[in-house]
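B., you asked whether I could sanity-check this one before it goes into the benchmark set. Here's the sequence:
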Amino acid sequence: MKVAIIPARGGSKRIPKKNIKAFCGKPLIAYSIEAALKAEIFDRVIVSTDDEEIARIAKTYGAEVPFMRPAELSDDHTATIPVIAHAIQELQNEEPVELACCIYATAPFLQTHYLKEAYALLLKEQCDYTFSATSFAFPIQRAIKLDESQHVQMFYPEHFSTRSQDLEEAYHDAGQFYFGTTEAWLEAKAIFAKHSSVVILPRHLVQDIDTLEDFTRAELMYKVMQSD
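And here's what the prediction gave me:
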């Protein structure tokens, strides 16, 4: 069985009820559910939550909530891998899980063809994970930091005079999805490692939603995209 697992706990602090907050007319989580269903590569689309309201809304948009997530996996410090591993273990009480894709509930820019591309890449390369990534807009080797007095230091001062076109391009996690084998999830293998591969997304489809400012920016970006 191939399953999409959408982790969506109810205790968001910086944006209360973030996962179900109205985003351009729909609960934010609805976009992830709809993308997973539209991809037609999953046997089941599951939401892992500890919150009854999230569970109700998830079901309204077509996802399953066959179990509630325990409190010990629902606090501010719980990482993603244990949550996905727990969901897999619950599901395997009924049917073996071959592959699991973690899709974040805060990914309104998620497009189904990238899910399909990641799935095909996982099978072709026989890696443990494939996930979404994008390039940094500015060379990380030219990044600066500030000390306690707000004075500037470079992280890599040796590259002060290096031309940007001569610097190696760097990428970061796009925060949309992570496709993985059951073994990788259950063994808690690191995602950012040589046994993983990536699907590169254009930067205009990537926006973390961690703060209210992020949320507003994401809505503005989404509205612009829909007006094209």
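One thing to flag: The chain has a mean pLDDT of 95. Otherwise nothing jumped out at me.
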